[in-house]
Amino acid sequence: MAPSSPHDSGEMMAEEKKWLVEDIHRAAPDLTAIKKFSTGDRAGLRFKNFLQEYQTDLILHAISKIGIEYYNGDDKAGGVVRKGKLGPNFFRFKDDHGEYFRRARIFEKIFEERILTLVNFFPRVQEVASKAFALGHGVAEHQHRRMMNFTVRVLPEAPIHRDWMPGENTGLSFAPHLSDQFAWNIYLKTPESGGQTRIYKEQDPALANERSEYVDVAPRVGELIIFRSTQAHAVLPSNGERLTLSGFFGITPEKLLFWV
Length: 260
Fold this sequence. Notes:
Shape: globular
Low-confidence stretches: 1-15
Largest sheet: 10 strands, mixed
Number of strands: 18
CATH class: Mainly Beta
Distance between the termini: 56 Å
CATH topology: Jelly Rolls
CATH superfamily: q2cbj1_9rhob like domain
Oligomer: single chain
């Protein structure tokens, strides 16, 4: 047998690399790849062309009419960063549950009337997640009050951090029932350069660095990315606007719960 060439060795190494984001075609999903992700053997799933160009254009036009709110917020790494949001996220209002739910009811109606009537993407996100984990789905509730299901987010960069609701001392009634947590992003605008999501195989942000195993996910308009938010992750600095539809979902014994 002829010895393998360096080129062959490189191909073998690429094939053996496990910490990667699997490209999934929604019409004919690779069930083996989805299973590997669900068991923690892959960094994430990327659904190409989850939204068509005309759908992202419709959503962007609606967002421009509503307007993005900019504020300085906690970056979960001990710093403060300028963020843009449309719709509340719980972490921002973790010390004021009442204000979070007040805003949630306002924006729930705005999103329903001005975005979801144009492109009803959210049930599709739930459907994809349900198929991946063979569980039903619902929107999380706290004391019989529905959480916000998604937000519009402008995030130029983010330091290494992890998102794990039960570990954030939020007091939310559903948090203790979560056994795993995931983030999802649909990209509406991508920067000229940068803006990749870096997903580390390491869970502890303090141990994640340039020598750690990681994969960079370059954002592309219309794609849906799902990854474990309990993995250390970061958003690399971007040159230009990075705009997403974003949220979380978590696994409970009964079903998947969505919130933001």
